[in-house]
Amino acid sequence: MGEDQTVIIAGAGQAGGQCAASLRRNGWTGRILLAGAEPHPPYQRPPLSKAYLAGEIGEDRLWLQPRETWADQNVDLRLGVTATAIDRSAKTVAFDDGRTEHYDHLVLATGSRVRTLPVPGAGLEGVRYLRTIADVDQLRADVTPDKRIAIIGGGYIGLEAAAVAKKLGARPVVFEAMDRLLARVAVPELSQYYLDTHRAHGVTVELGAQVAEISGKGGGLFGGKKRVATVRLADGRSFECDSVLVGIGILPNQEIATGAGLATDNGIRIDAECRTADPAIYAIGDCAEQENWLTGTRVRLESVPNALEQAKHAAAAICGTPAPRPDVPWFWSDQFDLKLQTAGLVGQQDTTLRRRPADTEAGHFSLFHLKDGVLIAADCVNDAHGFMAAKAMIAARAKPDQADLVNPDVPMKDVMKAALGR
Ligand SMILES: Cc1cc2nc3c(=O)[nH]c(=O)nc-3n(C[C@H](O)[C@H](O)[C@H](O)COP(=O)(O)OP(=O)(O)OC[C@H]3O[C@@H](n4cnc5c(N)ncnc54)[C@H](O)[C@@H]3O)c2cc1C
């Protein structure tokens, strides 16, 4: 299949790597050029703010598959090169190493980049971000015992980094501009739970804390750049620190699509098969915006399950093989000894119910979000059973019995079976 044809995948991350592997698994025998801007073979990012930052695993454990497997699969893996422009009529992609390559199918898997902090002092030595292996390799020295690290942004990345920093003996202070943590992605009850958890572990959290400026010290004529020393807030308070980690969100890498005349909004617009308006060009992963099959709204998801699923869909569309069934969007986050698993998309609920499983210790619970009685999302903290049951019910647009859902004496599998009519 695909003999004499070329698939170019621009972006060799989670989605791009999976797409190349899925193409081969689906029987694609044509050429696959997988080109990535980073010097590393395709790798997973979730451990960057978890086990890799903690120094518990090495770089090779991040890789999607061993480096030599790409060659075994006859994937032309080209690293350290950036796709700069697409010529849609000639069906070519130009790269920053001067080469131009022809494609029959092009997959944009360019991911996203960090949103940079727009305040004076953001360019000082010691201001860090957390997106790549290189970022974490720099950050490691800042999460050593007694180092004061100012973490700007109380989202998942900032909180995961705070948990690791605390575990390693550093002194993290989280500055969140909103009045609660995880404000963009979680209901207030979950925000409060994570606030309490972080404070109980000794992480300092400042809410409503708008960072206005970072000031530095040192540097000078021969001494190199000034290094961060103080974070100053809009309300006038200031905090001394040894380094700053900024985690204030990401932006989709969609400019190459815009430049080629493809529709973009908050991500490159794609259909259910991950195709753009140009039938030869697909977009997958963090860079893509797609109508969600459950909510009917256009969303750009920033998660591994989404990157993998869209990669498989694009590969199936290219090969003409059956696409996997669409999955319920889901996400996880590890902080301290808590594993949060979120299924579905939080936001449109009219009711949230809390359930604490009877057979587990305190700290294990789930929040179920319903709209007109239909389960649309769930946040499950150390509750894998609740998560699996919720995912199945969300997929079926089921209306679980609400009294049973909050009753820890009714096992989740029974709640699910009744709701699914099994
Ligand atoms: C620290 C961290 C922790 C995370 N934790 C979780 C988690 O716990 N659970 C979860 O579900 N998700 C998590 N995520 C999100 C998840 O990693 C992303 O959603 C996922 O990596 C998206 O895959 P992608 O292939 O779209 O993008 P990426 O994996 O970012 O890959 C895109 C690649 O394309 C390259 N590129 C960009 N432009 C070009 C170009 N023009 N030419 C060539 N190459 C280009 C980039 O350099 C990059 O290497 C985390 C992310 C981070 C940063």
Query: Which percent range describes the beta-strand content?
Result: 25-35%
Q: CATH superfamily of the largest domain, please?
A: FAD/NAD(P)-binding domain
CATH C-level class of the largest domain is Alpha Beta
CATH topology (fold) name of the largest domain = FAD/NAD(P)-binding domain
Strand line-up across the major sheet: 3-2-1-7-20
**How many structural domains does the protein architecture include?**
3
Chain-averaged pLDDT: 96
Count of helix runs: 10
Broad shape: globular
Structural class: alpha/beta
Uncertain regions spanning at least 5 consecutive residues: none
Brief description of this entry?
With 422 residues, the chain is of the alpha/beta class. It has helices spanning 14-25, 67-72, 133-139, 156-167, 188-200, 255-259, 304-319, 384-395, 402-405, 412-420, and strands spanning 6-10, 31-36, 75-79, 83-87, 92-95, 100-102, 105-108, 112-114, 127-129, 148-152, 171-175, 204-206, 211-217, 227-233, 238-240, 243-246, 250-252, 264-265, 267-270, 281-283, 288-291, 298-299, 330-335, 338-344, 351-355, 365-371, 374-381.
Structure description:
This protein is α/β, with parallel strands linked by helices and 422 residues long. The chain folds into three domains: 6-113 and 250-319, FAD/NAD(P)-binding domain; 127-246, FAD/NAD(P)-binding domain, CATH 3.50.50.60; 337-420, Enolase-like, domain 1 (2-Layer Sandwich), CATH 3.30.390. The protein is built from ten helices and 27 strands. It has helices spanning 14-25, 67-72, 133-139, 156-167, 188-200, 255-259, 304-319, 384-395, 402-405, 412-420; strands spanning 6-10, 31-36, 75-79, 83-87, 92-95, 100-102, 105-108, 112-114, 127-129, 148-152, 171-175, 204-206, 211-217, 227-233, 238-240, 243-246, 250-252, 264-265, 267-270, 281-283, 288-291, 298-299, 330-335, 338-344, 351-355, 365-371, 374-381. The strands form seven sheets. It has a five-stranded parallel β-sheet with strand order 3-2-1-7-20. Helix 1 (14-25) packs parallel to helix 7 and helix 8 (384-395) runs parallel beside helix 10 (412-420). The mean pLDDT is 96. Flavin-adenine dinucleotide (FAD) binds next to helix 1, strand 2, helix 7 and strand 23.
